[in-house]
Amino acid sequence: METRDYRNIPGTYVFDGKHLQEGYGLNMFCKSLDEAVNRAEFKSNPAMYLDQFAMTQRQKEAVLNREWLELLRLGGNIYYTFKLAIFDGLTMQHVGAAMSGSGMTVDQFKQMMSQGGRSIEGNRRRGDQHG
Question: Does CATH place domain 13-87 in 3.30.530.20?
């Protein structure tokens, strides 16, 4: 596998060619939620609906459990995976708080972002001894 500098930045899941290939089925599922008929079918039987797409078992589990950050790790594109959040009636702030990994509430997430976002200390490169 090709080494990329951005693979060493914590919390960075760049949608590159590798992620494009890994997440194709997952992203096509998310894109399918654009259509009302598909949303209704997914709502009625989520697991069976997911079987229509070339997804790994782990991708299916991440969808069913709404593991937002894991969806990105598994090749999901944030713009496509956000369609699933919209399906659930969530905002980007809800998803951002859930992705924080620290049990952050939506209000805490909004406050953090209005104050300039997450500190870069300890978040520059994996293995940094900052913060």
Answer: no
